[in-house]
Amino acid sequence: MKVLVTVKEVAEVEEDFELDGLRVADQYLDYDLNEWDEYAVEEAVQIAEESDDDVEVVAVTIGPERSEETIRMALAKGVDRAVRVWDDALDGVDLLDVGAKTRLLSAVVEEEDPDLVLTGVQANDDSFGATGVSLASAIDFEWAAVVNALDLDTDGGVANVRRELEGGVEELTEVDLPAVLTIQTGINEPRYASLRGIRQAQSKEIKPLALSDLGLDAAAVESDLVLTDVYEPETESDATYFEGDAGEQAADLATVLREKGVGAQ
Amino acid sequence: MSDVLAVVEHRRGSLRDVSFELVTAGADLVGDTGGDLHLAVIGGDVDAFAEELSLAGVDAIHTVAEGDEFNHDVYVQAVAALFEELDPTYVLMGNTVNGLDYAPAVAERLDLPLVTDAIGLQNDGGLVVTREMYASKVESTVEVDADRAAVTVRPGEWDAAEESGEPAVEAFSFDLDESRVRSRVTGFEEVGSGDVDITDADVLVSVGRGIEEEENIELVQELADALGATLSSSRPIVDNGWLPKDRQVGQSGKVVTPKFYIAIGISGAVQHVAGMKGAENIVAINTDPDAPIFDIADYGIVGDLFEVVPELIEQFE
């Protein structure tokens, strides 16, 4: 069995930042593995560890060479090998729309032929939250979005999942395999990479693939969406702020709380 | 002329609030283009839902009596069939857990560009969508460079439509391909009904990612005890297993409306705010002066919780 897990290196914006055109200026960005993908990777590795059969876990990412460092962290946590899709045609693209991502990942699925695909629910940068389900439709897999518990029954050909709905309600669903599942945070406890894992990851393969390697051309990454403006939202705060040092701030807040009957025994 | 097809949502016999917000967003989008706003009601008690949705601005309601609960395979097929029939310019759906379970497949199948989590829509000859990036730190506008599009709208951003109207209600039937219904809902469960009910508390001390380590939870528990308050949290604390799920405030947790909500080290992501914006008084303690939690706070302390909280505990001992 083969599990394909999509991963993305995302930029987190520092508290204070400046914009540079349609981007946050580079010096205010910290790159890391997308939080949701940490859980998807852990879930895939656990499936491999718990299975009696041989399970290969392959990570796929769309990202420039810089992202290899981040992707290697997934390899250090037990992913067997990785595929990195990048092309000059992707350089300088401000917003890669869901359709384009789907075309790239579909081509990788065709090449890898996985039995199960795990993605994060969303990426923490552009937060579209749509790639997994769009991919499922394109490759004719069944799917489930926002999965926070997974019990794989490969003999029965189904995945029993819980989907985390709003308001503290979970939906129990049986999903035919092969499937794409989008993984919610909290489904497991992502491990820390061991020193041994980090050492082993150095010799694991991260295979670069250009559009032509996937049988695609530049048309595949043409986006129907154009990012036209990026700006800091206006703060609408009309809060009363307590100033001074921590002691003074706490004393002023305590006064308000007591006036309103909080903590006044 | 822009025709809009909006797909409403329901769960366990009730329409979800986002359905009425979709009517407002859809009517705005049709605007004065002379187009029509169509609603799709798929599954459940469609006739009762259609009656509830007979609102001003809606031109037609198409009911699809197929199943009781949401099933994404049925929704994708039904919306695709309605799209063929009605040929709308825009398909609007909710940016909810179920919305994200079928909208991307609808867009893929119909070859429509998809913009999710819209917080603003403008239709001047082309569609321009406002949305957030980088955990709400940045807003962006996205222009759709195509004649048609699928869009999901963020719950709570548009007012719920209330004024009644007289749309045409029509039953819509299509040939459901059962062989492509490959998932089955087997039940629902309410999570985490432990010994503490945070929805019942007058005062909540709520802790977020800023607490950094599990052992520091004790500090905010101490504050909660000093104030006679109940301890709740944002999502990451529960994801880490530091507090049980029944303490989680937010979209996927509990919706709370206490007299006082004291948010400590919580940045105020939209999913969290959805669960606590109804609190009478909101206090925010955070190191980041630009944290979105301050936008909805009544009282703010920009400062280090590890300095402020011990001082606050002292005030009440």
Key phrases:
heterodimer; A: 265 residues; alpha/beta; Rossmann fold; nine-stranded mixed beta sheet; two-stranded antiparallel sheet; 6 helices; 26% helix; globular; B: 317 residues; 2 domains; seven-stranded parallel beta sheet; five-stranded parallel beta sheet
Question: What's a quick, concise take on this entry?
Answer:
The complex is a heterodimer of chains A (265) and B (317). Chain A has 265 residues and is of the alpha/beta class.
What does this protein structure show overall?
With 265 residues, chain A is an alpha/beta fold. Chain A has one domain (2-221): Rossmann fold (3-Layer(aba) Sandwich). Chain A is 26% helix and 31% strand. Chain A is built from 6 helices and 15 strands. Chain A has helices at 35-50, 68-76, 98-112, 131-139, 195-201, 246-259; strands at residues 2-6, 9-13, 19-20, 23-24, 29-33, 56-62, 81-85, 116-120, 142-153, 158-164, 169-176, 179-183, 206-209, 225-231, 240-241. In chain A, the strands form 3 sheets. A 9-stranded mixed sheet of chain A has the order 11-10-9-12-8-1-6-7-13, sandwiched between helices. The radius of gyration of chain A is 22 Å and the shape is globular. Chain B has helices at residues 17-30, 46-52, 72-86, 99-110, 217-227, 235-239, 270-273, 293-296, 305-315, and strands spanning 4-7, 10-11, 14-15, 37-42, 60-64, 90-94, 114-118, 120-123, 127-133, 138-144, 149-153, 168-171, 183-190, 203-207, 230-233, 260-264, 281-286, 299-302. The radius of gyration of chain B is 22 Å and the shape is elongated. Chain B has 317 residues and is an alpha/beta fold. A 7-stranded parallel sheet of chain B has the order 7-11-6-1-4-5-12, sandwiched between helices. The interface between A and B is large, with 85 and 96 residues.
